[in-house]
Amino acid sequence: MKGLFITFEGIDGSGKSTQMDLLADRLAELGVPVLQTREPGGPPIAEAIRHLLLDTANSAMLPRTELLLYCASRAQHTGEWILPALAAGKTVLCDRYFDSTFAYQGAARSLDIQQILILTEFATFNTVPDLTFLLDIPVSDGMARIKKRNLDRLELEHNDFRELVRAEYLNLAKQNPKRFVVLDASLSPAAIHTQIIQTVLTRLGVSSD
Ligand code: ADP
Ligand code: TYD
After folding, report:
1. pLDDT tens digits, 140-174
2. Per-residue model confidence (pLDDT) at position 116
3. How far is the CA of 187 from the centre of ligand 2 (A)?
4. Model confidence pLDDT, tens digit, residues 98-119
């Protein structure tokens, strides 16, 4: 049976990595086979593209180059890792997927949505996540959480950029209510995890006992 494809979305510092790790650990305890991965990135070719995208030295990168590189990374990742894992019955947990492109390159960089849609269908082999957790948090709170780490090229953008990203995520969630679960990312990690694990186990038809 085909596995469940779960993605995590939210601005930087919203707690995606924290929640993915908690979920992956719990699913492993329950004996559920999991592939935990991220975008941009995953297999070596996609990780090499990630490096190009996030390198602060690449400040001359044009928005459309950025869009194509995110899509190139996604095509390699989807074809090489995600689709084979789903076909093998694994639950795939992915830190960001195409919703990030609509929020960052679409809403925040103002690239054309119809063109992003066509590129997305191509890059994903028409794959759509079964479930998307949106970790929603005010921009200033997200930034406060990551101010100690070395910021990548996208994280160096101003807060207005992140406000556009956050608003577009909420808009995407509204447009796709069956796929999205919006979570208050200001809550404690444990409280957020409880909501996530309940939703995932219900979808998997697995008992938590
Ligand atoms: P993201 O992957 O979305 O950038 P992280 O999971 O790396 O976010 O979390 C960013 C920082 O915030 C980390 O230092 C992490 O420990 C902390 N953090 C994560 N979730 C919470 C939470 N619910 N409450 C407070 N701090 C959190
Ligand atoms: P990520 O490593 O997830 O950053 P973080 O863990 O801090 O949330 O993602 C790197 C950056 O790439 C992030 O700032 C968002 C951006 N991004 C896009 O702009 N478009 C995309 O399609 C994806 C997948 C990420």
Report:
1. 999 999 887 888 888 888 889 999 999 999 999 99
2. 98
3. 22
4. 999 999 999 999 999 999 999 9
Question: What does the CA dihedral 11, 14, 20, 22 come to, rounded to 10 degrees?
Answer: 180
* Token duo for residue 17: 């990595």
Is residue 110 within 8 A of residue 23, CB to CB? The reply is: no
- Which residues fall within 8 angstroms of residue 90, CB to CB, at 6 or more apart? 3, 33, 34, 35
Q: Quickly count: other Cβ atoms within 10 Å of residue 135's Cβ.
A: 25
Where do runs of H (alpha helix) occur along the chain? 16-29, 44-54, 63-77, 83-87, 98-101, 113-124, 139-146, 159-175, 189-204
Enter the tokens of residue 12.
């930087």
pTM listed for this prediction: 0.97
What atom in ligand 2 is closest to the CA of residue 146?
7
Both tokens assigned to 182 = 């919006």
Which ligand is closest to the CA of 183, given by its number? 1
Distance 40 CA to ligand 2 centre (A): 7
In the CATH scheme, what architecture does the domain 5-204 have? 3-Layer(aba) Sandwich (3.40)
At 157 the pLDDT is 84
